[in-house]
Amino acid sequence: MDTGTWPRAAARRELDAAGVQPQLRPAYQRCRVLNAAHGRTYFLATRLLTPAQRPAVHALYGFARWVDDIVDDTDESRTVRDRQQAVDQLDDKLRAGLRAGNSEHPILAALVDTAARHRIDPALFTDFMASMRMDLTVRSYATRAALDAYIHGSAAVIGLQLLPVLGTVCPAGEAEPYAAVLGGAFQLTNFLRDVGEDLDRGRVYLPLEELAVFGVDRERLVWCRKAGRPDLPVRRALADQVARTRSKYRAAEPGIALLASWSRPCVRTAFTLYGEILDRIVESGYDVFGRRLAVSGPRRLAVAAGALGAVVAARLRSRRANV
Question: What is the pLDDT of residues 15-41, one digit of tens each?
Answer without folding.
Answer: 999 999 999 999 999 999 888 887 778
